[in-house]
Fold this protein.
Amino acid sequence: MTAHPAHPPADLAAAVAAPPAHARGGVSQNPPGIGFLALLAEDRRTHDGKWLEQGFWAIAVHRFGNWRMGVRPRLLRLPFSVLYKFLNKWVEWTCGITLPYTVKLGRRVRIWHHGGMILHARSIGDDVHVRQNTTFGVARRDRLDELPTIEDRVDIGCGAVIVGAVTVGHDSLIGANAVVLDDVPPHSVAAGVPAKVVKMLDGVAHG
Ligand SMILES: CC(C)(COP(=O)(O)OP(=O)(O)OC[C@H]1O[C@@H](n2cnc3c(N)ncnc32)[C@H](O)[C@@H]1OP(=O)(O)O)[C@@H](O)C(=O)NCCC(=O)NCCS
């Protein structure tokens, strides 16, 4: 990632223009074009049909947390919100997975295993794979709205830490225990602390 500064002007401008975290939860951000129950069925298929898999429960509660934002009038939403808050805490306590409903989550996201996962991203794309002990979040306490963007088909190794307003480009692999502080271009393999591009999946070698 030598050619990618920590906060390129374009990304910084996008981060500044983006709504703050609390405003992003005002409406349902479940993926368009698919109903709530069909989405849950698809998420279960993504988790090999295993109802008891912790990753499936974390995603199901996330979908529910977004679905209830579409309930009108707002007074009717109240019992669903109470239930969501309980379920969200239950997932944190029992599965060790924190996935706020304000994260824009794509389709067919697979959470492998469980434990030690804080998935506080701006967005997580379609067909992303996440594993145990992974952290997405802010890089500094005085930059609470600078969250990572994980594009489609990214595969993240266990223990990875991805922080700040960085973008992990689509079709990339992030190595186990990598600490990603800069943008990762699409189709790359990034590993190490701090993470660097160790190779491109299109065959172009990067030092
Ligand atoms: C990053 C990863 C996908 C790369 O796999 P790959 O494409 O086969 O890449 P290579 O093994 O050819 O490694 C390329 C280089 O990166 C290094 N590298 C690979 N993974 C690394 C890692 N996690 N941390 C630091 N360096 C790493 C290799 O040592 C190699 O360096 P070299 O060129 O100096 O010899 C893989 O190593 C990895 O970390 N996968 C995560 C798997 C995981 O989390 N499993 C848990 C399942 S529960």
Remarks:
- Residues 32-200 form a domain with the UDP N-Acetylglucosamine Acyltransferase; domain 1 fold (CATH 2.160.10.10).
- The chain has one domain: 32-200.
- The first strand starts at residue 97 and ends at 98.
